[in-house]
Amino acid sequence: GNSEMATFLKIVTDFGKSVQMTPGHLIPNCAGKMFRANEVALGDCVMTVDGKEAVSAITSATHFGVYTAVTAHALIVAGGILASPFSVENDPGRHNENSGISSSFIYFLNKMSAKVSTGLRGAKESSSS
After folding, report:
1. What percentage of the chain has pLDDT greater than the value 90?
2. Torsional sign, CA 27, 34, 73, 2
3. How many CB atoms lie within 10 A of CB 56?
4. What are the residue ranges in the chain where pLDDT is below 50?
5. Which of 15, 22, 26, 73 sits CB 3.0–4.6 Å from 84 for a disulfide?
6. Residues facing residue 58 across a β-bridge
7. What is the 3-state secondary structure (H, E, C) of the chain?
8. How far apart are CA 70 and CA 103, in angstroms?
9. C-alpha–C-alpha distance, residues 24 and 62, integer Å
10. Is pTM beyond 0.70 here?
11. What pLDDT score was predicted for residue 114?
């Protein structure tokens, strides 16, 4: 394991999804703007695998395990929440705290969210009949 001790913020959504990241780690809001994890506030909207969800809790803890995911993609899913694999400290220029995600990507996420929601409603309706 990683032997570097660091402070982590645990961001939890109102539907129970959670991700732990360093305060400088980048996370997009529902409008596609990148924020540092330490700029996220209660009630802020984040994108999840199930669509848009509000942040319901933020806690802080210190422990081992600082990692950077090296991916071919600008965004990853961690704990069901969309996040950047980078922090402000190791951003290779793909993002910075003032950059946003392309509007076509946000459109795609919104369409996927609508399809997932529609599918889940259909599944609930068919299972209750």
Report:
1. 37
2. negative
3. 15
4. 91-92, 94-100, 102-104, 116-129
5. 26
6. 11
7. CCCCEEEEEEEEECCCCEEEECCCEEEEECCCEEEEHHHCCCCCEEEECCEEEEEEEEEEEEEECCCCCCCCCCCEEECCEEECCCECCCCCCCCCCCCECCHHHHHHHHHHHHHHHHHHHHHHHHHCC
8. 24
9. 14
10. no
11. 54
